[in-house]
Amino acid sequence: MGIISVSNSPSTTTLSFDGFEDFLYHESFVTGGYEINIDNQVSFAPVRTTSNGGASGYIDNPGTGGSDYLGHYVLTTGTTSSARVALCSFYHVDKLRLGIKGIFFEGRVRIWSQSSTPNFRAYFGLMNTSILIDDPIDDQYLGTVASGAPGNGVYFYFEDGINNGKWMATTKRGSSTTNLNTNVTMVTNQWYKLRAHINAAATVVDFYIDDVLVATSDIANTIPGASDPMKWVFKIEKTSGTATRTLEIDYIGWRMVR
Fold it and tell me: Is 159 helix (H, G, I), strand (E, B) or coil?
């Protein structure tokens, strides 16, 4: 994948699918810049709202070494009802398209237990959620994370008070959505390995939690295709109240089947 300038738009930049190497991302620490996250073939950037109660992304206990692949990445909302924060691949640009090659993606995450009534929702997977970056060069990546569901996506979803506290698996293409009950209850402070397999034709998506198949989406008009570019997104956002909500990410992996 060639270097993409800040000024390029999604319509003028081309990604070679066969040249898109498999990668594994794990949090690394750069002395003096804990929000710089560039590893292997894909750049990731934490983006937080600029005025919503201090939403932020940071490395938990990174130590004092260099890029030692240690620690966990923490996304924490602010205290206002609309606070939100995301960790995104390709920064704010949607690049990944389905329907050409098979795609596997995986992440290990947990949601922290916190006081007060839960009032948040979280997304994990491929999405076209819009991200506005005020200054892509700034290592704090101030900007605006779009609220709510994406226009297109293949992702795991959790919202308190919805689906009896269980994880959901979602495929979404425009106004057509398939929400599947995984029947796995989200327990706070517990790690979950979330994985999805998307076939090369983009007609079937298998969702796994901790290596167990929990849902399959095969309704074609709800699965994004070659005309629906997306990016990797981890997002947590408040829906009401003033309590901060926190999501922790251990690693992510991504593989294209060639």
Answer: strand
Q: Provide the domain limits for residue 29.
A: 23-149+189-198+226-257
CATH of the domain at 123: 2.60.120
Alpha carbon of 2 to those of 25, 90, 150: distances in Å?
19, 12, 27
Between CA 87 and CA 57 the distance in angstroms is: 8
**Residue range 39-68: mean pLDDT, rounded:** 54
- What distance in Å separates the CA atoms of residue 234 and residue 165, rounded to the nearest whole number? 19
Q: Say if CB 250 and CB 89 are below 8 A apart.
A: no
d(CA 58, CA 113): 18
Would you say 106 and 195 are in contact if contact means Cβ atoms under 8 Å apart? yes
Higher pLDDT, 138 or 232: 232
Residue 127 to residue 172: CA distance in whole angstroms: 9
Q: Tell me the whole-structure pTM to 2 decimals.
A: 0.79
Q: For residue 191, how far is the Cα from the chain centroid?
A: 16
146: which DSSP letter? P
Over the chain, what is the mean pLDDT?
75
The answer to the question of residue 216 being in a domain is: no
- pLDDT tens-digit map of 103-128: 888 888 999 876 556 688 999 999 99
Half-sphere exposure of residue 76, counting CA atoms within 13 Å on the CB side?
16
Q: What's the pLDDT tens digit per position in 163-209?
A: 999 999 999 999 999 999 999 999 998 999 999 999 999 999 999 99
**Residue 207 included in any domain:** no
Question: 104 pairs with which residues across the strands?
Answer: 197, 255
Number of domains making up the chain: 1
